[in-house]
């Protein structure tokens, strides 16, 4: 059989590798550590840095097609890969997703709305950004941020004075959106340009980290249709081949503002593993392998809870004993605080995703929200 090469050995690589193996492919992973989550599933693991052109060249020469679970391969590394093999998604899209300034510029060109933003490459541009956006902004490193790392909130003049003298430029400054809710759409696009969108997901973050995803998002169909069209437009606009998560805010007026894109499987679509016949990982592998893309049909409703750090890991015994819950662990040895250790999908018959009170009951000790508190909108 053909060999799928996956750059990155984390949980997204592990679950992509499992889907590829199910489809009869060999899997060769490129990772920085031999004992990574994907090593349990892949036939081969090559070890190297993401900027090691020679090691990447050796890896590429041993696979038939290259894809990613980790976006931050160096430009030189990407060039080497693309020289040797078909790379899906393309180097162009990877480079867009690696840099928030390029990302926002391209998304604007495609014609989607964003939070107001300014590039901040020095103190002068920071002052200009505060002038333009006011004292209500988030500074984000342009590269390598995830789970809210590399972000500084500036919500007052005092916060601005309290910023460290040496900021990790370049940054972007974004106006803080008083969003009504956060949504994401997982869109797959095949080699023939066919697009398939999984149902819109609503995401609830805690400390900048995804905590809970609800599918389908409890929103009017008109809003869901707009979110789906938006994600399709971005996928077409970037010429995607593969899968991509599009994160967005719904603002107070009901307008959709794109937050960021991730051209790879996405944490907010892990519910597809138990609520869809073909999940995001199989869809991803199919797109990368040039196979037909089936409709992204959802047969059940789902809530996905991330298991983060040592505290959430204590819930595993309970999850194992609870019907209707499917546990996915990533095989990480050390449960550091803030580290994604696994997730649990709580499955409901289609059309019966409960409201806030019912969800609190169904989630039990997994939930840490107050069911009577209506401030969270679901
Ligand atoms: P990840 O890649 O893990 O999704 P990240 O580090 O790239 O995260 P963002 O997605 O940019 O970070 O931000 C994390 C969360 O912070 C968002 O999901 C949202 O809840 C909040 N956030 C980010 N930007 C804004 C904004 N402009 N206004 C309001 N909230 C924001
Ligand atoms: Mg991100
Ligand atoms: Mg994000």
UniProtKB/TrEMBL annotation:
- List the catalytic activities from the record: 5-amino-1-(5-phospho-beta-D-ribosyl)imidazole + hydrogencarbonate + ATP = 5-carboxyamino-1-(5-phospho-D-ribosyl)imidazole + ADP + phosphate + 2 H(+)
**Binding-site residues for ATP, renumbered to this chain:** 100, 140, 145-151, 174-177, 182, 205, 259-260
- For this entry, list what GO says about its biological process: 'de novo' IMP biosynthetic process
Q: Which InterPro entries match?
A: ATP-grasp, ATP-grasp_carboxylate-amine, ATP_grasp_subdomain_1, PreATP-grasp_dom_sf, PurK, PurK_C, PurT/PurK_preATP-grasp, Rudment_hybrid_motif
Pathway of this protein?
Answer: Purine metabolism; IMP biosynthesis via de novo pathway; 5-amino-1-(5-phospho-D-ribosyl)imidazole-4-carboxylate from 5-amino-1-(5-phospho-D-ribosyl)imidazole (N5-CAIR route): step 1/2
Give any GO molecular function from the UniProt entry. Answer: 5-(carboxyamino)imidazole ribonucleotide synthase activity
Q: Where is the ATP-grasp domain?
A: 104-289
- EC no. given is 6.3.4.18
Q: Which GO terms describe its cellular component?
A: cytosol
Q: Which UniProt keywords apply?
A: ATP-binding, Ligase, Nucleotide-binding, Purine biosynthesis
Its family?
Answer: Belongs to the PurK/PurT family.
What is the protein's known function?
A: Catalyzes the ATP-dependent conversion of 5-aminoimidazole ribonucleotide (AIR) and HCO(3)- to N5-carboxyaminoimidazole ribonucleotide (N5-CAIR).
List the HAMAP family hit by this protein, alphabetically: PurK
Listed under subunit, the entry gives: Homodimer.
The protein in question is named N5-carboxyaminoimidazole ribonucleotide synthase
Organism ancestry: Bacteria, Pseudomonadati, Pseudomonadota, Alphaproteobacteria, Acetobacterales
């Amino acid at each position: 059989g053909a060999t799928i090469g996956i750059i990155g050995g984390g949980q997204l690589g592990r679950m992509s590798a499992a889907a590829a193996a199910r489809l009869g492919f060999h899997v060769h992973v490129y990772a920085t550590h031999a004992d990574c989550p994907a090593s349990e599933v892949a036939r081969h693991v090559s070890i190297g840095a993401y900027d090691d052109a020679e090691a990447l060249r050796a890896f590429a020469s041993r696979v038939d097609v290259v894809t990613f679970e980790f976006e931050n391969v160096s430009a030189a590394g990407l060039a080497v890969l693309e020289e040797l093999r078909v790379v899906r998604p393309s180097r162009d899209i990877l480079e867009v997703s690696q840099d928030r300034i390029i990302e926002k510029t391209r998304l604007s060109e495609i014609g989607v709305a964003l939070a107001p933003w300014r590039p901040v490459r020095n103190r002068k541009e920071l002052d200009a950004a505060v002038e333009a956006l006011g004292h209500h902004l988030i500074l984000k490193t342009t590269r390598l941020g995830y789970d809210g790392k590399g972000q500084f909130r500036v919500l007052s003049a005092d916060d601005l004075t309290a910023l460290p003298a040496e900021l990790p430029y370049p940054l972007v400054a974004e106006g803080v959106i008083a969003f009504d809710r956060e949504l994401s759409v997982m869109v797959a696009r095949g080699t023939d340009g066919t697009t398939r969108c999984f149902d819109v997901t609503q995401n609830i973050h805690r400390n900048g980290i995804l905590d809970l995803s609800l599918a389908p998002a409890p929103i009017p169909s008109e809003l869901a249709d707009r979110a789906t069209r938006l994600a399709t437009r971005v996928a077409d606009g970037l010429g995607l081949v593969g899968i991509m998560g599009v994160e967005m805010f719904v603002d107070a007026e009901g307008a959709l503002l794109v937050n960021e894109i991730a051209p790879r499987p996405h944490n907010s679509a892990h519910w597809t593993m138990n609520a869809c016949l073909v999940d995001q990982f199989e869809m991803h592998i199919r797109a990368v392998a040039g196979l037909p893309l089936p409709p992204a049909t959802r047969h059940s409703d789902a809530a996905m809870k991330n298991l983060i750090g040592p505290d959430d890991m204590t819930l595993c015994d309970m999850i194992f004993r609870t019907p209707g819950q499917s546990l996915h662990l990533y095989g990480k040895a050390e449960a550091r605080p803030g580290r994604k250790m696994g997730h649990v999908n709580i499955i409901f018959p289609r059309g019966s995703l409960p409201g806030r009170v019912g969800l609190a009951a169904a989630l039990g000790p997994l939930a840490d929200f107050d069911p009577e508190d209506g401030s969270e909108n679901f």
